[in-house]
Amino acid sequence: MRPLETMTGLLTQPGFQGKQSLHQEALAKLKDVLMATYFAADHVVWAYQIGLVTDKKRGERAQKVSLWSWALGSVLTMVIEADAILSVRASSRVGKPQFSNAAEIR
Question: Can you tell me the distance from the alpha carbon of 92 to that of 72, in angstroms, rounded to the nearest whole number?
Answer without folding.
Answer: 30
